[in-house]
Amino acid sequence: MREILKQLPPQAIVLDLGSGEGSVPAGLYPARLVSGDIQRPTAKPDRFVQLDSARLPFKDAAFDAIILNHSLEHFPDVESSLLEMGRVIKKERAGIYIAVPDSATLADRVYRRIGGAGHVNRFTSLSDLVQLIVRTTGLRHQGTRFLCSSFSILNGLNLGPRRLGRMVRFLGGNERLLALSTLLLRSADHFLHTGASFYGWALYFGDIAFDVDEGPWTNVCVRCGAGHSSAWLETTGRVRRRWLLKSYACPNCGARNYFTSDEAYEFLRRGR
């Protein structure tokens, strides 16, 4: 998502679709962001439009980019929504970012088990999903990044009292225990070449002027869910070692996470 947003000029207009309170902080990028959702969020963004994703109230070719950050799985009419996105996006020098879960993963199953609602679409085939998006939007598929889970849905800081009551069996929602459990799960994947850490896909479409980093980003925050490449975290000096373990503070929310090297998890891409 960041790769698309940072290349846009100030006059560009971006639709953050199904975003709730917004996928990115206001003012972080020069382009103008318009947030759209079927429900009005409690903290409404500056430019918010209440809408139906299958009937977008915008003229043709109105947007330079469209962001769907974990929202497509919530849309009741996926094909109509994608056709509408193809209508309102420009066909040149424009891009679409779509992040979705693989419904066969452990993370998505846990989400459903604890009472998570709204995942009305279950995507299990990357190739089928790519073909659907290309056919409906008319944009080329430029690449896919493989997403890992931090199980931030189990973090007690992100849950209301009702759902927190269900977390006793999941470490009580304790953030430090969740970070350690995530590290152990990553380590098991590394040594056993399993895919328990895998979450889903970040897909890039359109006329974009950068090469998509298709490797998995394993450093995903246990609080806010933001992912960062291990190379970027190291080159920016954010990684610290204590005893035998490395950790970093999330650049987005400041939560402490254990650090893992993305290169050790390339098998996740080959296996999906």
Break the fold down into its secondary structure elements and pairings.
Blueprint: H1 2-6, E1 13-17, E2 32-37, E3 48-50, E4 65-69, H2 78-88, E5 95-101, H3 106-113, H4 126-137, E6 141-148, H5 161-164, H6 175-192, E7 198-206, E8 219-220, E9 227-228, H7 230-235, E10 239-242, E11 245-249, E12 256-258, H8 267-271
Parallel strand pairs: 1-2, 1-4, 2-3, 4-5
Antiparallel strand pairs: 5-7, 6-7, 8-9, 10-11, 11-12
Structure report:
It is a single chain. 25% of the residues lie in helices and 22% in strands. A hairpin with a 2-residue loop joins strand 10 (239-242) and strand 11 (245-249). It is α/β, with parallel strands linked by helices. It is globular, with a radius of gyration of 18 Å. The mean pLDDT is 86. The protein has helices at 2-6, 78-88, 106-113, 126-137, 161-164, 175-192, 230-235, 267-271, and strands spanning 13-17, 32-37, 48-50, 65-69, 95-101, 141-148, 198-206, 219-220, 227-228, 239-242, 245-249, 256-258. The two termini are 21 Å apart.
Based on CA atoms alone, the radius of gyration comes out at 18 Å
Largest sheet: 7 strands, mixed
Number of separate strands: 12
What proportion strand?
15-25%
Shape: globular
Q: What is the H-and-E element order?
A: HEEEEHEHHEHHEEEHEEEH
Discrete helix count: 8
* Distance N to C terminus: 21 Å
Summarize model confidence as the mean pLDDT. 86
| Helical residue percent band | 25-40%
Low-confidence stretches: none
Q: Which strands sit side by side, in order, in the main sheet?
A: 3-2-1-4-5-7-6
Structural class per helix/strand content?
A: alpha/beta
